[in-house]
Amino acid sequence: LALGFKADERDYGIGAQVLSDLGLSSIRLMTNNPDKIAGLEGHGLTISRRVPVQVRCNPANARYLRTKRDKMGHLLDLGRCGNH
To answer: Catalytic residue numbers?
Structure first.
């Protein structure tokens, strides 16, 4: 973000194609990133369930995790750590 790039410039098309080639059309996805869900669904995959990635907040990563939650829309429950 600080360098002026988009928050996430990834394209999920190749990954979606690989999963499709393996015969998958519906998957459970481990992610906190709603853009990843939309990106894969936009390429024809069905996300049957999102499995949250549990992240432990600590002083070393608190600012980074708050940025992911607040500016990038990641679905993170940071507990008390997320409010400081």
So the answer is: 8, 10
Both tokens assigned to 41 = 């669904």
Main-chain dihedrals φ then ψ at residue 39, nearest 5 degrees: -65, -45
According to DSSP, the β-strands at 46-51 and 26-30 are parallel
What confidence tens digit (pLDDT) does each residue in 12-30 have?
A: 999 999 999 999 999 999 9
Question: Cβ of 66: how many Cβ atoms within 10 Å?
Answer: 18
- pTM to 2 decimals? 0.79
- CB burial of 21-53 (b: ≥16 within 10 Å; e: otherwise) equals eeeeeeeeeebbbeebbebbeebebeeeebeee
